[in-house]
Amino acid sequence: MPRSAVRPGLAIAVVLAACSTTSRTAPEGAARPVPPANAPAVGRDAALAAGGRGIAVPAVDTARYVRATPPSDQMIQKIWDEGMQRSQVMTLAQVLFDSIGPRLVNSDRYNAGQDWLIKTYAGWGITAGKQQWGTWTWWERGPTHLDLVAPRVRTLEATMLAWSPGTDGKSVEADVILLPDDTTAAGVAAWLREARGKFVLTPAPGITGPGAPSPTCRSQANLTEFGAPGQWASDSAKRVQWSAAYRARLPRSPDTTANGRRDYGFAWPRTAGVAGILSTYYSGYPGTDKIFGNPRQQVPTVDVTCEDWNLLYRLALNHQGPRVRLNADARSLGERPVFNVIATIPGSERPNEYIVLSAHYDSWDAGSGATDNGTGTVAMMEAVRILKQVYPRPRRTIIVGHWGGEEQGLLGSRAFVADHPDIVSKVHMGWNQDNGTGRIVNLGPGPFTGATDRLVAYLDEMPTEATHAIKIGAIGAPGTGGSDHSSFQCARSPVLGLGGVSWDYGNLTWHTNRDTFDKVVPEDLRYNATLVAMLAYEADKDATAMPHDVIVNNPANGAAISYTCPTFARQTAAGR
Questions:
Q1: Confidence of residue 483 (pLDDT cuts 50, 70, 90)
Q2: pLDDT band at residue 268, thresholds of 50, 70 and 90?
Q3: What is the three-class DSSP state of 37?
Q4: Nearest CA to 135 among 13, 29, 17, 12?
Q5: H helices present in 50-207, as ranges
Q6: SS3 category, 115
């Protein structure tokens, strides 16, 4: 990415879901592809654990690196003992997930958490500081409260989408209506007049996920165990059909943005003067929704969980007069500088060679951002704490990157790569984690021709209990958007992805309102941090620097691989 694309004072375009389930980059300003809500859980998790994070299929015989004897390197044993017996991961996680909470990019919580990172590192004797990567809308979330007031009273489970306008400190009460039945120009025009002052049940603008209605809000496991044969498949097919049919009724009034792009879905709510939008994005479990947002939202926009959204839909469909009251508090303070946090332990012998520990720090904010990617953040913090405790003078410089704006398109890490070619060109090895709370079981060499032998050598020095379940994947194409290691790999810099067991990440916690502290698996998180610390130590004692040689053709299809890092258009908040 050109350095100018992340120059302070410039805002950078929104991409809605960078923790994507595909390694293919989405078009600028579009939501990244995700598995459909009706996809089998196993397939969705496989996409997240494998293709979405750049981890290739197993390719190396474990006999090459799983030891039959205890480690001979006493430093490895010290790292293992410190990490597994005196771990601080859950203490760190409780503060970050419970007290600081979710870290929507450039929100008050995002910035408070960065101050905590710097203070925590200072307490360990490690220097950390902020590095600006651009500007972003500063937005503060307040409480959301939505009640059904007719034809009966019920408090509904609802969360305002990120960057939505609020209700200006008032409670807004209005009828609930469906999208127009008549989608001709005349029919839509008549409906737009009717929609004034009402809440509309509609997919959220800019979100490409399912928009309801849904035949059921039960889970796949529930329907498979108790339903008639084929009921899950039947209900899944209905969900796809019903959602597509309802989306087809969405008004198509275009909105021309500052960059000349015409967007459908953002203009008509403002033009029609609707009271607000009630959307839903069912994740696959009762009460669990994926909740995003977009700075271009112009009316209060609220996600309502599957059960309650479909209640409102049925009431409106049957002309039973649904009416709701919404009070949603939010405050937008305009464009302000936005930062990464970079922690550093300087090298004692080769200070201009680098080991990079990488994890994005930002999150969506309907939950606590616990497994996406708070656990990755905590793992990297704990790894460097362990190293500082037992191996305080590494030969090479160790950098920990806590990236911002990953969820909008890897913005913070791409900015770092663009702004620090001197560091990027001298990275010896690095690892990125961004796949939930699960125990690491896959290491991949990415496109780097020399990485497999290095990984084998590193694991061979570790305790058997640390390596017996790990598979080393085959060499493959570089990541192109799944997570922050992609930002380095496009520049031929060997930062590699780590893949963990699923814990049903795709359905349960990935970008959902249920991504909270209780979903963390302490044993797995403790192990991950310790493994990363051992990998960093092994890389540091490596006598020769890792070459940046890469494959030039994709092994999967023979296609030529481009190692040109993507660029971003210069856009203001109005153009996002």
A1: very high
A2: confident
A3: coil
A4: 12
A5: 74-85, 89-93, 108-123, 185-195
A6: helix
Q: Which two tokens stand for residue 479?
A: 């990541």
* DSSP β-bridge partners for residue 177: 200
Q: Are 102 and 159 in contact (CB under 8 A)?
A: no
Q: Up-side HSE of residue 362: CA atoms within 13 Å toward CB?
A: 28
C-alpha span between 304 and 311 (Å, rounded): 10
Q: Residue 353: is it exposed, middle or buried by C-beta count within 10 angstroms (0-12/13-18/19+)?
A: buried
Q: Reply yes or no: is the peptide bond before residue 151 cis, omega within 30 of 0.
A: yes
Distance CA 184, CA 251 (A): 10
User: Can you name the residues that pair with 137 across neighbouring β-strands?
Assistant: 335
Nearest CA-CA partner of 384 in 524, 500, 536: 536
Helix (H, G, I), strand (E, B) or coil at 473: strand
Check: CB of residue 92 under 8 Å from CB of residue 526: no
CA dihedral 188, 193, 196, 199 (to 10 degrees): -30
> How many angstroms separate the CA atoms of 172 and 152, rounded?
17
* β-bridge mates for residue 326, sequence order: 146, 172
* Torsion of the alpha carbons at 70, 73, 78 and 84, rounded to the nearest 10: -40
Which two structure tokens, joined as six digits, stand for 566? Answer: 């993507």
Give the C-alpha distances (Å, rounded to integers) separating 327 from 248, 296, 298.
Answer: 29, 20, 16
In the predicted model, is pLDDT for residue 299 greater than 70?
yes
486 Cβ contact partners less than 8 Å away, ≥ 6 residues apart: 23, 54, 410, 478, 479, 480
The answer to whether 106 touches 141, Cβ cutoff 8 Å, is no
Element (H, E) at 146: strand 127-150
Q: Quick one: which of 515, 518, 476 has its CA closest to 497?
A: 476
The reported pLDDT for the residue numbered 254 is 58
Residues 288-316 have a mean pLDDT of 95
| Among candidate residues 210, 214, 218, 220, the one with its CA nearest the CA of residue 281 | 210
pLDDT of residue 210: 72
Q: 102: part of which helix (H) or strand (E)?
A: none
Length, in residues, of the chain: 576
Outline where 420-521 has alpha helix (H): 421-424, 451-460, 464-467, 485-489, 505-508
pTM of structure:
0.89
CA distance 299 to 269: 7
Using 50, 70 and 90 to split pLDDT, how confident is the model at 253? low
For β-strands 127-150 and 154-156, DSSP reports them as antiparallel
| Residue type (1 letter), 189 | A
Enumerate the β-bridge partners of residue 433. 498
Burial (Cβ within 10 Å: 0-12, 13-18, ≥19) of residue 323? middle
Highest mean pLDDT among 57-71, 168-182, 199-213, 562-576: 168-182
DSSP characters over 231-298: HHHHHHHHHHHHHHHHHTTS---EEE-TTS-EEESSHHHHHHT-SEEEE--B-SSTT-BB--B-TT--
